[in-house]
Amino acid sequence: MYGGYDWAPYVPVAQRLLNARRAMQQRAKQGHVIDPVCIKGRAIACTPWGKAWCSNLEGYSDFDNRLPRGRRYARNGSVVDLQVTPGLIEAYVAGSDTYRTTISVGSVPKKQWQAICADCAGGIASLLELLRGKIDKAIMQRLCRQGDGLFPTPQQLRFSCSCPDGAAMCKHIAAALYGVGSRFDSKPELLFLLRDVDLDELIDSAGSGFTTVAASGDGAVLSDEEIGDIFGIELDDGSVPSPSPLVAAKRSAKRSPKADAKSGARKPVPQANGRDPYVRLHRQLAKAGSLTSAEAQRILHLSAAELRPLFKRLIVEEKATVSGKARGTTYHIRRD
User: Fold this and answer.
1) pLDDT digit string (tens) for 277-303?
2) pLDDT in tens, 84-93
3) Residues of the chain with pLDDT > 70: what percent?
4) Mean pLDDT lowest for which of 7-11, 229-233, 272-276, 322-326?
5) β-strand pairing of 98-105 with 88-94
6) How far apart are CA 227 and CA 55, in angstroms?
7) What is the Cβ-side half-sphere exposure of residue 184, based on CA atoms within 13 angstroms?
8) Where on the phi/psi map is residue 264: left (φ > 0), alpha (ψ -120 to 50), or beta?
9) CB of 311 closer than 8 Å to CB of 281
10) Given 1.10.940.10, 3.40.50.10330, 1.10.10.10, 3.40.50.300, which CATH number is that of 277-333?
11) Among residues 271, 262, 264, 272, which one has the least CA distance to residue 316?
12) Confidence band (pLDDT; 50, 70, 90) for 307?
């Protein structure tokens, strides 16, 4: 227990990555093939298949509070090893420790795969064009279609992580899932391997010369907007999906007061002197670098009881870290 809370001491990102890479070096010496996810720039995925995977992932509304932290971990190189095999994603992700995550992915049901092949028959010119995503838009939309396309639904996923987080999807699992989207940029064939379907069957169906999907005729790849339309989201400049206003409104409308209470939704922090005390505390901590509770009481004119939930919120939201115990407890701004 640290500072009255059950959190491990903060480990800087650079140290986390160094520790994880050392752990992977040890695994490599034991004969394991290590394949880290390396993302350059803001975009996690740049190709049609990678973007479509990330878009489908962002459509998992039950996990939307975990996905942003997973994106951050994926971008900063925390996925130090990622392996994709039929029905299984295995990854090692850097955190306070190096955690092993496994994600079981259900295979595409036989009838569903047969329907996909039948719908796309005659619409795919070659394997190379399929893997590049340079196929007719109508065919790509059919392959990406939610529910009965190639991408898994939340019900087809089973998560496991060695971290202490008890959530169904922790940030390490979310990072691994985004890492898969990045991996599809260079190896799109892994999508078909993961879903345990025979890519040759889809290509062979192209020779039938008949497709039940109305072709658009231009053969161009889907744009970001069109990919977003399939999954009901919008893609930002970094190819990271964010909910459209319509989807966000639907999610908000579905939530009831009872559901909010059950999920532990926070009540608004009362205003003090016309300003949010949480914002004031965050600004003062950022300015000073570190503060004790006594110093914060003196600066903000708030009691220890009023400050305690504010400091806890800063820690939970990963904006601050804590060191020391009892009266020696000090809170530090998190700058990574």
Assistant:
1) 888 898 888 888 888 888 888 888 888
2) 999 999 999 9
3) 75
4) 229-233
5) antiparallel
6) 7
7) 28
8) left
9) yes
10) 1.10.10.10
11) 264
12) confident
- Per-residue pLDDT, averaged over 241-255, amounts to 47
Distance CA 129, CA 184 (A): 15
pLDDT band of residue 48 (cuts 50, 70, 90) is very high
Question: Sheet of 290-292: strands edge to edge?
Answer: 290-292, 330-333, 320-323
Alpha carbons 305 and 308: distance in angstroms, whole number: 5
CA distance 231 to 307: 42
Please give the model's pTM, rounded to 2 decimal places.
Answer: 0.63
- Distance from C-alpha of 85 to C-alpha of 33, rounded to nearest angstrom: 13
What is the 3 state secondary structure string of the chain?
A: CECCECCCCCCCHHHHHHHHHHHHHHHHHCCCCCCCCCCCCCCCCCCHHHHHHHHHHHCCHHHCCCHHHHHHHHHCCCEEEEEEECCEEEEEEECCCEEEEEEEECCCCHHHHHHHHHHHCCCCCCHHHHHHCCCCHHHHHHHHCCCCCCCCCHHHEEEEECCCCCCCCCHHHHHHHHHHHHHHHHCCHHHHHHCCCCHHHHHHHHHHCCCCCCCCCCCCCCCHHHHHHHHCEEECCCCCEEECHHHHHHHHHHCCHHHHHHCCCCCCCCCECCECHHHHHHHHHHHHCEEEHHHHHHHHCCCHHHHHHHHHHHHHCCCEEEECCHHHCEEEECCC
Query: Cα–chain-centroid distance for residue 197?
Result: 24
Position of tokens 């744009």?
223
The CA distance from 303 to 306, in Å, is: 5
Q: Which residue spans of the chain are classified as CATH 1.10.10.10?
A: 277-333
Mean pLDDT score across all residues of the chain? 79
Phi/psi at 216 (5° precision)? -80, -25
Least trusted range by pLDDT, from 42-51, 190-199, 248-257, 273-282: 248-257
